[in-house]
Amino acid sequence: MFSLEGITTSVQDWLFMKFNPTMALAMECVIVILLSISLFALLGLVLVLMERKVAAQIQIRLGPNRVGPGGMFQTVADTLKLIMKEGLVPDKADKLLFNLAPFVVMMVGMLLLAPIAFAKNFQIWDINIGVLYISAVSSLSVIGILMAGWASNNKYSLLGAMRSGAQIVSYELSAGFAVLTIVVLTGSLQLSEIVKAQENGWWIFKGHIPALIAFVLYIIAVTAETNRAPFDLAEAESELTAGFHTEYSGMRFALFFLAEYINIFIVCAIGATLFFGGWMPLHIGNWEAFNHIMDYIPSSVWFMGKTFFLIFLIMWFRWTFPRLRVDQLLNLEWKYLLPISLFNLLLVAVIAILGWHF
Amino acid sequence: MYNQTEIIKDTSELGADGELVINMGPQHPATHGVLHLVVTLNGETIKKIEPHLGFIHRSIEKMCESLTYRQFIYVTSRMDYLSSHINNLGCALLIEKGMQIEVPDRAKYIRVILSELTRIASHELWLGAMAMDLGAFTPFFYAFREREMITDIMEDTCGARLTMNYIVPGGLMYDLHPDFQKKVKAFITQFKSKVTEYEDLVTNNIIFQSRTKGVGILSAEDAISYGCTGPVARASGVSCDIRKIYPYEVYDKVEFDEVIETAGDSFARYIVRVKEMNQSIRIIEQLIDNIPEGDFVAKTKNVLKLPKGEFYSRVETARGEFGVYIVSEGGTTPHRIKFRSPGFSNLSVLNHIAAGGMIGDLMASMGTLDLVIPDIDR
CA A75 from chain center: how many Å? Predict the structure, then answer.
């Protein structure tokens, strides 16, 4: 049966056979870097096209359909255009920070790829504090956004960055609490452990009501964290033209754009891992035959399927809801989501202690 | 001219007391045209809004003074381009009143149907654009799906899809397209089946309601003293529908309700326009099967000359009262002409209703005022 695990093992064996251990490790690092950069580019292309096609379906139109079969190469053409475009730097901008900001935002996205389990035993870095690492690193992206807003020397950018700062810092809490719910149920911060704990059923099914509440909270919080509509106040174009990236053009803009989609992918991947069992196939109790059939579907397909389902959900939000106002956004977090998450955490702790979950 | 230190000193003065002055427009996604708003902010809160006009001023009134009475009507389509038929009707009514031309019944019926179709098309565009201001993209496409059918009808009728010219002094330019009645009926069926989608997508949406309810409140007294008309004033409880108060054409023969809400906030203005679309459908339904046979235009002289004197006529466009005031010296062209456009008075209320709110509230208030910039600047 096809599995990514086999490929990685044979590559590693071959490297260690041919070279000394230090060399082999260095070469593995290079391969991983190249792979994650190409995954980055590929995801950007696929997700932008997906967004446009999803939007088109919702808005009773066709979407891109000219470049390549079914408009498949539309995003490639767009990227080429952005690469060739001149990247303007405003005269009064802080040159260093202005140029640094897109890379900070993108680097955060890249760092977040490390602990994600893409398939069975296919993980760059199975760190034992995986969930904590993700929460810690993902909150760094706000620095890049604030940097961009401040360095642009533009009032719209500044307003957008301030909004984004307030928003990401607040919604981080709810997302963290939702993640903690699963950590309490599993008893481990390590992502591979969390996946393994869902062998006989995904947490969303066997975690009772708290897991369901946590999932809803998580989806709302990460939609806000990634600055997506209905929480896209940081780049609300009817209010602030383009928010924090008003002054960016060319490839620097493309990096922001790419980072947005990579962030969506990452939060959805984490959501899929926590609530839908990551690469774990759908197993139901002791239905041996059913479980066996499900095992035949490769684990990478399971992982990608779940992740893209969540991505579709977030895209669906964007093309349905109007935008919230900034005070309503903060009210929603501090007056509703945060108390609910705290209560939910308490509930799940009781359930975990009494062993009521399956 | 200035050296750099002077410029910096200048901006620090502007930013006194934590104030931030931003220029919204003339190129800004929310102003829907070349309106320039100088907004003074304190953080996210708006302290003052100062609209700067004139970016699309084409001196239409002066231009009309050098055109004959037959010619100047066509220019009025370029003012409020979303109610072009109604603008033309206002001018035609004035000339007919001045020269005492008896318009055939057929023309009267068709004029009213076209006015109401124009009103629906305008409100549809407003609905989509306002939802877009509030960050929802999808209603725009849903609204344009129905608007497209009206534009097709207009194209059949008079050849143009946007700046339509069909109404002339004395009646209509041509007779109706043979498909007209069929297409209008198809549109009515389509509209009635799809209007629930707006309810689901926009009206009942909790985010939309919280964004618009209690935002941009305009009291009835203020609406009157600022000279607001149309849906803006009716949402504040002021009865000002020209079709009811000074009925023209066949509006006194058809049954329809003047939609009045009393809340005066953005949501009330939204509701008034949505309900008005339904009333327009009601009017069209009463007339579409009863268009009388006969002439579509009265016999008039080739060269029209208004008698010496002052003339005023008013019609209800999608935005409010549109008035035409002409001073004639008896010649072939108007001596002086003045258009009373609804958009100008409605814009004047913006600072009053949006100051003190947040930037997001400004979008809701401005969106529901339904501004068409060429109508304001002229």
Answer: 20
* A321 in B contact zone (CB under 8 Å): yes
What residues pair up with B51 in beta bridges, in sequence order?
A: B37
CB pairs under 8 A between A and B: 84
* Residue ranges of domains in chain A: 88-354
Enter the DSSP assignment of B21: E
A 54-113 residues with CB < 8 A to B: 55, 58-61
Q: Is residue B42 part of a domain?
A: yes
**Contact indicator for B201, A59 with CB cutoff of 8 Å:** no
Chain A residues with CB-CB distance to B363 below 8 A: 238-239
**Beta-carbon neighbour count of residue B32 at 10 Å?**
21
Residues whose CB falls within 8 Å of the CB of residue A110, separated by 6 or more in sequence, listed in order: A36, A37, A40, A262
Mark yes or no for CB contact A232/B135 under 8 Å.
yes
> Has residue B309 been placed in a domain?
yes
Q: Are residues B93 and B48 in the same domain?
A: no
Asked whether residue B121 falls in the same domain as residue B210, the answer is yes
Judgement on whether residues B79 and B119 belong to the same structural domain of the protein: yes
Mutate to test the interface with B, among A158, A159, A228, A238 (most CBs of B within 10 A): A238
Give phi and psi for B330, each to the nearest 5.
Answer: 95, 0
Determine contact, residues A200/A358, Cβ cutoff 8 Å: yes
Residues B44 and B152 in one domain: no
Do B176 and B310 belong together in one domain? Answer: yes
Looking at the structure, do residues B97 and B167 belong to the same domain, yes or no? Answer: yes
Q: What gap in Å lies between CA B347 and CA B366, rounded to an integer?
A: 8
Domain residues for the domain of B27 are 4-52
- Please state the ipTM of this predicted complex: 0.80
> How many domains does one find in chain B?
2
| SS3 category, A167 | helix
Q: Assess whether B200 and B340 both reside in one domain.
A: yes
Q: Are the beta carbons of A159 and B358 separated by less than 8 Å?
A: no
Q: Nearest by CB to A319, which of B30, B132, B137?
A: B137
**pTM over cut 0.80:** yes
Whether residues B284 and B201 share a domain: the answer is: yes
Is residue B261 a part of any domain in this protein? no
- A43 closest CA partner among A280, A300, A303, A264: A264
Chain A from 106 to 125: CB within 8 A of any B CB: none
With beta carbons less than 8 A apart as the criterion, state whether A325 and A238 touch. no
Which position has the token pair 């490839």?
A: A251
What is the CATH number for B209? Answer: 1.10.645.10
- What does the alpha-carbon distance between residue B302 and residue B332 come to, in Å, rounded to a whole number? 11
CB of A46 closer than 8 Å to CB of A52: no
Sign, CA dihedral B103-B104-B107-B113, equals positive
CB A210 within 8 A of CB A353: no
Per-residue confidence in pLDDT tens, chain B, 378 aa:
445 444 444 444 455 566 788 888 788 877 777 888 888 888 788 888 888 888 888 888 888 888 888 888 888 888 888 888 999 999 999 888 888 888 888 888 989 999 999 999 999 999 888 888 888 888 888 888 888 999 999 998 888 888 888 888 888 888 888 888 888 999 999 888 888 888 888 888 888 888 888 888 888 888 889 888 889 999 998 888 888 888 888 888 888 888 888 888 889 999 999 889 889 998 998 888 888 888 888 888 888 888 888 899 989 988 888 999 999 888 888 888 999 888 888 888 988 888 888 888 888 888 888 888 888 888
Answer whether residue B93 is part of any domain. yes
Q: Name the phi and psi angles at B247, rounded to 5.
A: -60, 135
Q: Which two tokens stand for residue A189?
A: 């911060």
